[in-house]
Amino acid sequence: MPDRIDITIIGAGIIGLAVAAEVSGNRRQVFVLEQNERFGMETSSRSSEVLHSGIYYPPDSLKAITCVRGNALIYERCRKYGIGYTQPGKLIVATNKNEIGRLEWLFQRGINNGVKKLKLLSAREVKNIEPNVEAAAAIYSPSTGIVDSYALMGYFLTHAREKGADFVYRSEVTAIDKTASGYLVTVADDSGYSSFKTAVVINCAGLESDCVAAMSGVHIDEYGYKIHYRKGEYFSVAREKCRLIGRLIYPLPETDDTGLGVHTNLNLEGKMRLGPNSIYVNEIDYTVDETHREAFAQSVKKFLPFIEADDLDPDTAGIRPTLQKAGGGFRDFIIAEESGKGLPGLINLVGIESPGLTSAPAIAEMVSDMVSEIL
Question: What is the pTM of this model?
């Protein structure tokens, strides 16, 4: 490694890749450090691959702003660069009349967030477009879609490399020390330990982003940067049942802001999964508990009556890096340049959970603006 570089990005998931693509160039020397053997091996490869519209999040929150902007940016890149995607749209359903008030409230939130072309549908209108779905009413979100997340990450990687960024895998950051002109970063790899100086550190470490922030000198408990692991499991649906719907079907989100509720997830090949659920865990574990099969079936049966427990098989699981404690309220993304904490040139991205995939290019734009103020 060189003695000094301009920008060091820690983490090569979807966020780190998007940031690298955005901040590279302009004769900047950019290093991306990833502890795994290749990019996107953790949270980014275990998502629903859904392009969210931005309807769910409080107005003016970073989640709302970056999701709405990111949705448009990703569709634009998919069309321009041939990244696989489909745009089936989504129905968010009220399963009985008592839920219609909450549905209308959510619809208005989406309007306030700038989500385009939302529609409120009656039970009859739902039946006209999805005859196998039971609903008292629904929100139709046509801008919701599905993207090939691996191809999207590959696009960001290629774009960053073309602009001169270097990617270093199997390299774990073990120390970040403030210096007079930036930071001294220490890395452990197969050959041992090495250190280099950098003007800017961008923390895109996902599940370990709070650890990296702490390593950099941020008191994570004092500032609310502590990450909590929230596991989500998926079950695949029998192929003959996959043909019974053509859109993503979601219930109303959980009232405690812990998730969007177990819903359908379609991939580009037309396969359907149910998930994810939401379970706080103390350690990273990607196994799927087969005993949850019945609970998954029952959770969607109110709006997908054709689903039976026997239709479901364990598929995969992911871990969300959430800032929200169990039983706590909504927490927004942390996207912060840390001069106010005495750490100029440190940019922390912490708690980038859903809609992080959708938000990635918009988050990258925000970070690029911060970098331009530093370099």
Answer: 0.96
